[in-house]
Amino acid sequence: MQKKYQIITFGCQMNERDSEYIAGTLETLGYQKTEKIQDADVVFLNTCCIREKAENKALSLLGEIRKIKKINKDLIIGVAGCMTQQEGKAKKMKGDMKYVDIILGTHNLHELERMLNLVLQGKGQQVSVWESEGDVVEGMSDSQAYPFKSLINVVYGCNNFCTYCIVPYVRGRERSREPESIVKEITKKASEGVKEVMLLGQNVNSYGKDFKTRSYQFSELIRDLQDVEGLERIRYMTSHPRDFNDSLIEAIAASAKVTDQFHLPVQSGSNAILKRMNRGYTREYYLELVKKIKKIRPEAALTTDIIVGFPGETEKDFEETIELVKSVGFASAFTFMYSPRKGTPAFDFTDQVPLADKKRRIQELNRLVSELELKYNKNLENHVLKCLIEGKYKEDGKLIGKTSGYRSVVLEGDDSLIGQIVDVKIYQTGKQLLGKLA
Ligand code: SAH
Ligand code: SF4
Ligand code: F3S
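^ inputs. structure came back:
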């Protein structure tokens, strides 16, 4: 009987990529993917702890999986991802969650095979999390979610310590991969049919700053990727406004492969709050950067992340965020209510904002973001845009594709188009862009 695995992934693209490595390892060991937990021999939860909600979701699902294990006693349960790296968490899980067989830290993926074998030999619960980051591990097997687009890690960890954020604690300090390894990996993927890459880092444009024996920055990586044959689109996530320097702007301006997607988390429009968040830029700097981007790419789709209700945020601070959002005219935005994370500086700030204020602010912000989204979409009406067709839209026979700006378009078309970049004319806008083959 073919052994099966399921992986449930929470959180960001780092976790999505890590799940592809977990999948790759399990497939090498003879497991086959299933979407049904009842069929699985191994189930992995790849967790996120960026906000309390993310953590609660993973924990409640783990409770459900535990019930399934009561029926299927041989089910192997693994927990990976950022939750396992929170201070004291792995130890606590080890004690409290005996039904979890494998606890796998964020830089321990290469240990999975060994740990799984020990579990299969009846050696009991296996725990491996990191205390110091160690070297970047190259050459792990992966199983990509899509054959035509790849997530590519370029820098691990984060050195920024924004005062609200748990990531530097659970992903460690910045460690960049050697450019040669990245270019080699992408060249191989492109030769196998990959048309689009998403270069990944928590702060992707600080890539290279940690190199001790060479000088090489993100803009140079962008330039070095231009010649990769078959590669048509280059995306990157997440760029930090502070590190979006002129050399990167120039490299993007010179590249037809870098897409129109500019995701630039601003977090707040108030200088006082930005300072307290330790973001390292002002609203004036951010607005200037947006100007520079619009100049080199008039078609740019600017998107952002915003936190409302950070400690000390007044109505006036919030109004400054609203003003900034209006003046940039984002194509869309991810908005969050501040969630205190234990171990981060802002957790201990005494001027926490009441939940009712956070809720009111996020509602007002979301209304504005929806308006801007409709406006952005409306401007695309009758435009012919290149779309990478990614797959089926909700099983109803239609296809879904992504524009260069990473907007989703729904269209009629044959399944054979999946994985192709085609011209699509936008004929209807609104919340959802509808198009037809041009
Ligand atoms: N590295 C990226 C984003 C990491 S997390 C960056 O620097 O932009 C994604 C988003 O989650 C952040 O941009 C921020 O808006 C939000 N976020 C992070 N910590 C949060 C917290 N404690 N409460 C609410 N939102 C948070
Ligand atoms: Fe978190 Fe800031 Fe690093 Fe982004 S840049 S991961 S928000 S600490
Ligand atoms: Fe979450 Fe970890 Fe990403 S905390 S947002 S999965 S880096």
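The chain has a mean pLDDT of 97. The first strand starts at residue 3 and ends at 9.
thumbs up if we can close this ticket
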